[in-house]
Amino acid sequence: MNASNLYHTAYALLAQGMVWVLTGNLLAGAMAGTCFFFGREVAQYQASLATKGVYVTMKNPLELFKFWRWSCDSLLDVALPAIATLVVWRFA
């Protein structure tokens, strides 16, 4: 675990709060915060594959969702914001 995991969690909670203020829906905020960082990590994984010479095209787009090939840091960058926002949604 490193500082980026905690920053991602804080930003996801901030996004959840902003969406909650705008819509009144905590679950929508949890999904917004989590999906933002999920998309970010998918894009980073795609970029790391491209540097290795593996280009993900339309013939195999599911290659990006092989989570077991992601780094531990990338998994935590998605999992911690997801857990934190769902805890806030459930117990608020």
Characterise the protein shown here:
The protein is an all-alpha fold. Helices cover about 75% and strands about 0% of the residues. Helix 1 (about 5-25) crosses helix 2 and helix 1 (about 5-25) packs parallel to helix 3.
Shape: elongated
Q: Return residue spans where pLDDT drops below 50 for at least 5 consecutive residues.
A: none
Distance between the termini: 26 Å
Rg for CA atoms: 15 Å
| Count of individual beta strands | 0
Helix content: over 70%
Q: Secondary-structure element order, as H and E?
A: HHH
Question: What is the total domain count?
Answer: 1
Supply the number of helical segments.
Answer: 3
- Largest sheet, strands/sense/barrel: none
Write down the overall mean pLDDT: 91
What class do helices, strands and sheet pairing give?
mainly alpha
Percent in strands: under 5%
What labels would you give this structure?
92 residues; mainly alpha; 73% helix; 0% strand
List the helices and strands and how they pair.
Elements: H1 3-23, H2 26-51, H3 72-91
Helix pairs in contact: 1-2, 1-3, 2-3
Write a brief caption for the model.
With 92 residues, this protein is mainly α. It has helices spanning 3-23, 26-51, 72-91.
